[in-house]
Predict the 3D structure of the following.
Amino acid sequence: MHNHQQPHSANKRRLIAACAIAACTAAPAAFAQNVIFLDTFGASTTRTTSPYVPQAYMPAIDLPATSKTFSHGSTFYKFANLGSTDSFDKFNRDNIDNGYYAVGNPDNLRTGASFANEGWYQFQNTAAPGGDYTGTNGGTTAGVGAVLAVNAGEIQNEYYRRAASLTPGATYRLSAAFYITNSSASSRFEVQHGATGELLAKSDAFGSNGIGANYLASKIWHVKELTFTVPATCASNANYSIALRNLAQSNSDNDFYVDDIQLVELSGPAAGASTLTCPTAAVPSIAAIDDGTWTIHAGESSSDSVRTNDTLTQADGTVTPITSSNTSIRQTTTVTGLTLREDGYIDVASGTPAGTYSVPYEICIKPETKPWPTCATAEATITVPSTPAPVRTPELVATPDDYTSTPTAPGGKTPSVITNDSSDGTQLTPSDVGGKVTVKLVGADPDDFKMDPTDGTITVGTGVPPGTYTLTYEVCAKDDSTNCKTTTVTILVQPLIDATDDDFSAAPTPPGGKTPSVLGNDTLDGMGNPSPQSDVSVSAKPGSPPPTGFLINPDGTISVDPSVPSGDYSVPYRICAVSDATLCDDAVVTIKVAPSVPANPPVIVATTDDFTTVPTAPGKSTPSVLGNDTLNSSGNPTPGTEVIVSNDPTIAPPTGFSIEPDGTITVDPSVTPGDYSVPYQICVANTLTPCSTAVANIKVGTSTPATPPITTPVNPSVPPTISASDDDFSVTPIQPGQSTTSVLGNDTLNGSSNPVPKTDVIVSNHPDPLKAPPSGFTINPDGTISVDSSVKSGFYDVPYQICAASAPTVCATAMVTVQVSATTVTTPTPGTAHSVPSLGTWALLMLSTLIGAFTLRRREQR
């Protein structure tokens, strides 16, 4: 950063000499014509940032300026700020690790770091420079001069880059001081296209491995430079940036300081100067011109913007006026008491000492594109006189107000009339009334219209009839009652109407039903719930008809046709004042239509379950309670899809028992052995009614040892024991498209029943391909068997296999008998007798033969 509090002339003429490897010799004064910029990095005993480290300071497109962060990834250097709470990030930042940088005095860069014995050891090395390159920072207190400290690591990228205005035909010298703290450092100067990064000129690489004059010994300051000429044929509006790039890749060293980066325009050609390549890309460019010396008294602002003399040139050469809409502007260095605003004006704080100050700024074309926004830099020179500011009369501008588009009701209040008025070009706010200016109505009847002298609002009297009124008001300077301006304010007075959105979804409306009135939360003239037809009319909103099946009634209710399906609906409506049909407002009512009640309601039956024959171990689950329950006489209904399983709403389950949505009951590991009764409820899924309750009787066995688990034998050399028992699910038929309960309910692993699928055992098809499941049957990993909707009614045998999860070769097989019922089940009508079909003798003989063959087949399959 610049030392911007020294006199402007000193800043403009300070030069850095071209130096040899170990000694510096000032260049002939004739070469120095104009200092374009000089960055001494200021004075700081704490870590700070540089606005010229790429992506470290992009407030217009990243986070606020105070955070100094970037979002362009690790390809650029990160600011090693202190105070990070993340342990990994904190170590990197505290120690200015690889890929990090900081600006500060070399002797104080470790101050505040939490790793006192870690980090960039060169900061505490006895051979450290003991200060910045100049040692005095251009006149400030010695020992606090700052440098740019870079731990370059393996990031081969620019660690410094800034815009520069270059003139075709001119010759320039770019220089900087370098101090390598260890080894393996290598850098070079570059001149680039400001918008595209195109390389236009570069120096040779210099550093630890440089040759001849490009070799830089460690632990000593060196000054390197690049002299280059801009050809006269280059475009005059081209954008340029100068940069310093790291060329080395080393995480074990490659650490260095940089100071006094300077660009000067020479008075003429220089021997050995490189010739810059003219940019090839035609892009918009911006030129920032230093502003002449402005005199601003303490407590006042500049009368002009620094943008006034800057230029924005489009790619086709057209010069566009610079405004805050096409450019962003920011102050690049803090100058105590002087602040550059976003509009380009400079504020001088009250109490700022007399003197001459330089305010550096950067102006960029919007939008600021990453990684290289198109920018330019310049500075404004401000003289703060020691004499007090002269007393002057502020220039007031009063602009007419028109509030007819937002009517005001009798008794209501308008916005403040002051918001479009100004003083000395600055827009006034209601808070300025009584402080900077006074405001009052001229000639209005105070009973009809009254202006608030504290904020400029106007209250309309309660007796003012509807109509359009034009009033005159006066705004005066607070300290000069003769400095006044008058203008008008036009007000439309009419009753107010307000339709507010309604939400009737909490109480669903059945098909064929009617909602409450929408007028309950609407108002007319501030009065709630206006009367339908006498106060307001209710109708559909023009251009937004209600959904099909909805009718908006004159009394404010909405009828729902019996054909409307269940669901959520939005119905726009409009209310208008009966006294003024042009006074209307719109709103929306949300309606939830309940499901239609079927003519034949579903029949659901929950039947008591007995799970005492096979005890359930603590920490395990029972089979599903749905196995013997029915929906419309169909057994084992599907959980979630057909029925919802939950606690009995009247009786809570015993402590430690959880009824799961799939119908199983989980027994907590803390439950002691014994017999328990667990009430539960099942309800029809789509309507949650009707419901049925039952009880599951459960015997809890002894706890399974936590270590080892079921799947791991105590002695690893002893394999687990597994047993699969035949299941008979034919007692409770299932319909095509449903699933059975789990086959694991009567199977065991290491003596424990109902092992957990996937965790304890793996359920799969029988290993013998000749015993594959019948067509349409799928054995699921959770132990259930899915029956495809195409399966015909009848009895089916489904072989299956279970294997120990911890020992997949330890397996057992069994058979499941499933009865598939007809697809359609007819619910009998109570009180109606049905005849029972009888079989003839030959039919009974045929059935007996089939059952014998069926039994023989089952035995062969096993």
